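Worked example 3. Consider a protein that binds KG4.
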Amino acid sequence: MDISKLTILAIESSCDDTGVAVLKGDKVLSNLVANQEIHARYGGVVPELASRAHLSNITPTVDLAISDAGISPEEIDAVAYTIGPGLSGSLLVGASFAKAWAWARRIPTVPVHHMRAHVLAHFISPGPPPEFPFLCLTVSGGHTQMIHVHSPSNMEVIGATLDDAAGEAFDKVAKLIGLPYPGGPLIDKYAALGNPEAFSFSKSKVVGLDMSFSGLKTQVLRFLQSQLSQDPAFIDNNLHDFCASVQSAIVTMLITKLELAVKTTGIKQVAIAGGVSANSGLRKALTEKESLPEDPWQVFIPPMGYCTDNAAMVGIVGAFDAANKKFGSLSDTPKPRMPDLNS
Ligand code: KG4
Ligand code: ZN
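Given these inputs, the predicted complex is written out as structure tokens:
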């Protein structure tokens, strides 16, 4: 079936933001995110508070998304929702709402793997989308995966972090210098005015396509302890240079692994996805690969709104799967861990 005929209501509630979107095929009619500011003061997401906020946000956000889309609820053909991975309480709110809403209207549900949704966000109109097969480096707060994308339903993880995710590395370093959660976007902001070569941090030595970011956090902690013992105002005096140097270390590690993945697979269509794909250092480094004098890459960078968690990406997976009649059932339950991207 042609996906352009399908109208999908999509719900994303895997972590701390309640996302709701309405798509007609690959076109986004509305895409809303109810942010949960409350976690910033705790330095990270508090799962119980996240579930409660989802509960109070979900009904008004769904109503608003449908009215913003300019359609009536009767026009919706299926409800797509994130089934995992993520926080179990948060997932439970989205899954229960989606199943109940769909059941009441006798329409099917489509349970969606969150990381698969990040990858397929590249297929949201206007594109242009990559052609299969392509490589996708998915970098978020919970995952860092190098994926060989054979088709919308066949994704092979060919490398992954052995410890912290790239977004987690940004957030942990930000926390060390007293920035609120999530610190990734703030490091990016301060890095823009700094010198990336001011301080040097060694890169992880993991061989192959796997990655590691936990060593960077420890290295930065020791570095800060030593600097602060000499200059208690070190952070204030060097904020921009420090952020630029940390960002450069993380981006270099990611680009090095992408270079190896391109070499190993021979695939030159390279995409990034997930929250860290909003990082301006990573976007710039990747864009430079398009103008390599020899063997340039064809690079795919999502628009900002589709990098961090959003429901439009869940909706495009919903459209693909609904077109193939791949539906869920009322007995589907949230899966906080989902190692298989194709499950
Ligand atoms: O994909 P996402 O919204 O949620 C998860 O599925 O985890 O990713 C969130 C992560 C956080 O770690 C956040 O700090 C990071 O993405 N992030 C950034 C930027 N924007 C979001 N990291 C670096 N630079 C950014 N501009
Ligand atoms: Zn995500």
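Take a moment to read the result before moving on. The mean pLDDT is 96. Strands lie at 7-12, 18-24, 27-34, 78-84, 109-113, 134-139, 144-151, 154-160, 269-273, 298-300.
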